[in-house]
């Protein structure tokens, strides 16, 4: 049986349920069965070179991080032409200029940019890895993780931060591409230049993102208001993503943006203080959003979304019973400029059959998520 309530997951973790040495709890939702490094002897890197070596090799690994690993300056700095996008209306007061990633600057005003070279490329993580932080000590500064070309990876209790936050295209914290069975749990991301979490365009397949904190607080903002725009991007082909118990705050967009043919089950999350939009759903993505709390979110759902079941009321939510095994939970929205209760498409609900999670009432979600999401809260 797999549990979706963050409080229940934490309680079981304290009782000693482990998927692998060093890992607390076990993967649930679409990533159920992920074991990471299994029962491999834990290793304790003491330098960035040693950490990179463990992450990228072909051996099953349980990698315990009990200190900060600072990549800033390790590859020098780069000065080159970037650009000032139209969104940067406050260049002298915290706006984001852009590195020319993917030729993004074509046709925009050129400016010189100087950035930390390490931040724009991620560490490629091999298959069968558990990367687990100890207490609140595990910080990866100035470098993201890219899980690619493999499968069966657990990232737990790690804080990834300071990836050229002043620049769009400054770096992504967690990237998933061409992979399968990935569990991201009790992770915090902050001060990221581009995406906090990105999956796609190639398939990421079965993924669970749980009990994690997406902290968009920043001094450099595409929206010029100290809220990060580029939060979560899920664009994989036929990906199945369980997104549960997470705390997404101080963002202004892409929280998340969902496309490709992704199936996303967003359950019992807490969105707080979003000055733009939360969900941005393209025509081929299928999303269930239930038992969530949104507080002070300007636009919970961008216009144009088609395939969303927003669990609007008890009557409509009964449609969940056959495919999911329970009646979906109503979302709670407060101090929002609009709601998404009219989005109640049910035609795709059967695609979520067998996920193995059960939502709880949204009544205590804000408190439980803030108490359990992020690092040092296992």
From TrEMBL:
* GO CC, alphabetical: extracellular region
Looking up Pfam families in the UniProt record yields: Pectate_lyase_4
SUPFAM superfamilies (UniProt xref): Pectin lyase-like
**Reaction catalysed?**
Eliminative cleavage of (1->4)-alpha-D-galacturonan methyl ester to give oligosaccharides with 4-deoxy-6-O-methyl-alpha-D-galact-4-enuronosyl groups at their non-reducing ends
Recite the UniProt keywords alphabetically.
Answer: Carbohydrate metabolism, Disulfide bond, Glycoprotein, Lyase, Polysaccharide degradation, Secreted, Signal
The domain of life for this entry's organism is Eukaryota
InterPro entries from the xrefs?
Pec_lyase, Pectin_lyas_fold, Pectin_lyase_fold/virulence, PEL
Annotated Pectate lyase domain residues: 94-300
Q: What Gene Ontology terms for biological process does this UniProt record contain?
A: polysaccharide catabolic process
Where is the signal peptide, in residue numbers? Answer: 1-20
Q: What class of enzyme is it?
A: lyase
Output one GO MF annotation. pectin lyase activity
EC assignment: 4.2.2.10
Q: Where does it live in the cell?
A: Secreted
Q: What does this protein do?
A: Pectinolytic enzymes consist of four classes of enzymes: pectin lyase, polygalacturonase, pectin methylesterase and rhamnogalacturonase. Among pectinolytic enzymes, pectin lyase is the most important in depolymerization of pectin, since it cleaves internal glycosidic bonds of highly methylated pectins.
Q: Which family does it belong to?
A: Belongs to the polysaccharide lyase 1 family.
Provide the protein name: pectin lyase
Q: What organism is this sequence from?
A: Lophiostoma macrostomum CBS 122681
Q: What is the lineage of its organism?
A: Eukaryota, Fungi, Dikarya, Ascomycota, Pezizomycotina
